[in-house]
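[job 4471] stage=fold_predict status=RUNNING
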Amino acid sequence: MIAGEVEFEGHLIDSNILPKVLDLILDLDGEFEITEFRIGKRKHDKSYAKMIVFGRDENHLSEILKELHKLGARIPDAEDAEIESAPDDMVLPDGFYVTTNNPTLVRVGGEWIEVEDISMDRVIVVDPENKRAYCRFLNEVRKGDLIVVGERGVKVILPERPRKSSTFEFMGGHVSSERPTSNVVRAIAKEIVELKKNGGKIAVVAGPAVNHTGARDALAGMIRDGYVDALLSGNALAVHDIELALFGTSLGMDVRTGRPVPGGNRHHIHTISKVIAAGGIKKAVESGLLSEGIMYECIVKNVPFVLAGSIRDDGPLPEVITDVMEAKRVMKQALKGINMVIMLASMLHSIAVGNLLPSTVKTICVDTNPATVTKLVDRGSHQAIGIVTDVGLFLPELYESIKDIESNSA
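[job 4471] inference complete, writing structure tokens
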């Protein structure tokens, strides 16, 4: 067998890091020997562990160490990160390092530098002269960029369990349809109010079901009252929101009665045509064509929105970004400085946004289908809290809870 030494530092026990490390080694058919272990004596103290990891051969050991690195493993007396030039635009050197969504440091010139704009499944580009490191999409890599190769000189910092009780803590971060939804909604409302009081920012990812289920007015109210700092969605949410404003229907359905309206199947096409004729959503608001709803409040309150297109879109509306790479770049920019993301009944947009988020951003995913949250977590967004319920019930109750908390605190 061949062996390698690694060390871990942090809240290894109460954040469940050490059990994950040992399970991973055994699951990969490796062995370990803990040579040093110091437990923090107070809640703010960090613990430290050093161990020798054994693999069958060099390749097997390398496989284990790569996975341990994602859990925060580092090589004692680390050397600088290995760096190689990109041979061409969007072409990477062999053995390039792939990021997680956890805070990451790289060692350059004997100093640890934090990687900026961290998100999962990206590469790290280093600027040694200015002592900076950036997380980059593959399509952003240019010939000559200095790319981090391998795990040497790279440090991943796993999120820790909160040091004090949090309104989120009792939810446990798992997916369940059996939680007392009212208690969960109240807890999230308190978190939102507290976050905004402290200057935090909230982004909402929303699907068209927000309109179909009658939750539209609640989301518009949250935007109007300053609880939404960015809206990320697609063509359908905006179209059916404006359709409601113009015709009182969503996808041709009267949302008050739940019944289809004669000729309602043409309403969403008519809506798109009217907005295009007006010169876009903002022009539609300025001309008086659009006077209420989600998109109206975004324009009036100057809340940035990103509408990412898909192959299924009718139209689309003028503001929809049909180049998916450009949409991803703009979404990433819109998420800078965001502290919480609320995902509402949109599997594809939720997963897309989840891929762009660091693990430090509080993430709430609401959907009637538990598979939506499961897929989100399986793709690496382990910080996501899943609430299995109808968004038409959840969002109005959340908005009322926020107003109630604000009223009581006032």
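[job 4471] summary: The first helix runs from residue 17 to 27.
[job 4471] exit 0
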